[in-house]
UniProtKB/TrEMBL annotation:
Name this polypeptide is given: Uncharacterized protein
Length: 158
């Protein structure tokens, strides 16, 4: 199912509008997951091939829109949610809308392997939990948290 869902992303509605980045983010971002059993039956190579096929189709769709600006298709593993996520934005890869630090151009196979090898998707390690105290809310993110992202330039400027 996961491979089919990845490929289906290429057929979903696509918004490319630099003046409406919030709409782009809402319409073009997808969360993909699967069962532990299916994860064990998939290879990173299969996941990579599905995303590369998706990127190729999206590239053709962007060209057919006549848009000649920068467009990036990108994939990351959302460890907290236990999901692969992908999105398309009319931005260069180094300006993607993440609020944390980003490591760009991570090999897609590495992201796929991390997702497939996640033994407890969506569950953080118990060692990372801290007791809550009355009225205290820690709104900081760890300095070492980095979102690892694979990018593909799919814009019409190629």
């Amino acid at each position: 199912m996961l491979l089919r869902w990845i490929r289906e992303v290429a057929d979903e509605p696509l918004v490319v509008d630099p003046a409406a980045r919030n709409i782009e983010a809402r319409e073009n971002t997808w969360s993909l997951s699967t069962s532990i059993d299916e994860r064990g039956s998939l290879s990173a190579h299969e996941v990579v091939a599905a995303f590369e096929e998706c990127a190729s189709i999206l590239r053709e769709r962007v060209r057919s829109l006549g848009y000649d600006g920068q467009v990036t298709f990108y994939v990351w593993h959302d460890q907290q949610a236990g999901q692969l996520r992908c999105s398309t934005a009319s931005l260069p890869g180094d300006e993607l809308p993440f609020r944390s630090r980003v490591e760009l151009d991570v090999p897609l196979a590495a992201i796929a392997e991390e997702f497939l090898d996640d033994a407890r998707p969506g569950q953080g390690p118990w060692d990372d939990l801290r007791p809550a105290s009355d009225g205290y809310v820690d709104e900081t993110q760890p300095d070492d948290f980095v979102v690892r992202v694979w990018t593909a330039d799919i814009g019409g400027t190629q």
